[in-house]
């Protein structure tokens, strides 16, 4: 037996048992057992979960190696007969695999090991009646927001040590974090399509963005990113494109965010998002005809991040700015299949060469394309999550001018950085790669003699060479540590934070990261370098996480590390929100009122208690034995039936 899960569903108790031969569902109430396997060879089940709603989840694997084929399977109802030797697609309500499913579990190409998963019933951001599934894998954490009955239009999101992706809804065609870390050069498409882009004229990726880094474009240098024409960039009547963008200067001309538009041939145009010469946001689609429709929003000023989205559903085109629809226009037909390259940092091209005079000047981040029409609720959620992530990060500049240590400090004089003096005193934060030789991340603490200090000291010292005035991104928005191997996962009572435990294959290099689910921002970390103490004042000295559990304000972390005790337990501070909205013990008080029974009445009967709720009067045998009921002086008489 590899795993078990029990739940009471519709008054009956069920137990699911995961084995090397499949999964068995035992109905303890009725005394029945039904077996299920995916295929004769792909039947090794390591993890299983039954939800109180009667949904069954389990992983299926060919063998116990990390090169095995993996799938996550779901039944919307518990099986009522044996489901043996059949393919998953013939009986499972949905299964997710590394490729070939929508959404896909892929973070990168190749096979990967699913080490664990948890299910949060009815917590999906796509559909409130569906589940959120968090999968711990050797390549990071995968969060699926299911859409029951329309699973292909659910979403998937990836959490790794290098980046956190945008929520990818439906048939995702590209997702560019533009992160620039981990040797990725900002050009990698992290969606299952793996549609990487090329760099034109040395676009850089060290600027602080929504979740870590962003691409920085200089219009005067004609910088852009390009994806060669491919079927993945072809859309018909379902389409959405989105990106975050920051304007540095106003060129006085049109400035492109993204597009696939031939500047010379009208029949070779698909879609675009750009600011026109009046700084108005323009969202455009081109359908067969050709028929071009442009929806126009308000002007976008220089400075500040904004979220842009265009959608098309076969009848209408809509334009969104910062989570709000700003324009909509009728549009019909299938979108044209342009042969031009997909461009980021511009919107026009000819013969796959970006158009002159329409380059973006500033930063662009989180570029997304999907063959699904995003809903207003989904777009608003993407904006609000990204906005909160932005608020958790900023930029700093390395300076050696006042350093008394071998390592450089981050920060300069007032007004030269985007954070306030003393902002990080007492906080655990992280800096991301800077340019030049600075190729690793470090935890840092702000050391200051007063709150007027803008300098933040590396701790531990940065091992790489850092040049004076190098720019760094400040603000953790990824898994901490040096490993993507997620071995444990847990969620707090209010479903606000997810705790992600990682470790390397050798049992080191990991830690526990606490991330706010609605902001993609790291709010706390557990690692030996941080210096945390448990309730017994013992330091956290392990980097090999095996289990995490939370109950109320108690956090317990298990580790495969006998030299450091293997167990960490602490009482975390209870927030006001948890006190107000957290689970509470409910006491029911039953007030039994003792009412005297009247068996014999002689003379006048008066009932004066105001708490009487009923009076039973027997049928009289004679007229002289009847009981007369009448109101007193100045009073009313109310007679009421059972209803």
Return the average pLDDT rounded to an integer: 79
**Termini separation:** 56 Å
Coarse shape? globular
What summary fits the major beta sheet? 9 strands, mixed
Q: Brief description of this entry?
A:
With 643 residues, the protein is mainly beta. Helix content is 4%, strand content 37%.
Account of the 3D structure:
Helices cover 4% and strands 37% of the residues. The chain contains three helices and 43 strands. Residues 85-90, 402-407, 433-440 and 584-596 have low confidence and may be disordered.
Topology:
Layout: E1 3-9, E2 12-19, E3 22-27, E4 32-36, E5 48-50, E6 56-61, E7 70-75, H1 88-91, E8 94-97, E9 114-120, E10 132-137, E11 140-145, E12 155-159, E13 168-169, E14 172-176, E15 198-200, E16 204-209, E17 212-217, E18 224-227, E19 239-247, E20 255-262, E21 269-275, E22 280-287, E23 291-299, E24 305-312, E25 316-321, E26 324-330, E27 342-344, E28 348-350, E29 353-354, E30 362-370, H2 376-391, E31 394-399, E32 409-410, E33 429-431, E34 442-445, E35 456-458, E36 471-474, E37 486-491, E38 497-502, E39 512-516, E40 521-526, E41 545-551, E42 554-559, E43 567-571, H3 576-581
Parallel strand pairs: 20-28
Antiparallel strand pairs: 1-2, 2-3, 3-4, 5-6, 6-7, 7-8, 9-10, 10-11, 11-12, 12-13, 14-30, 15-18, 16-17, 17-30, 18-27, 19-24, 19-30, 20-21, 20-27, 21-22, 22-23, 24-25, 25-26, 28-29, 31-32, 31-36, 32-35, 33-34, 34-35, 37-38, 38-39, 39-40, 41-42, 42-43
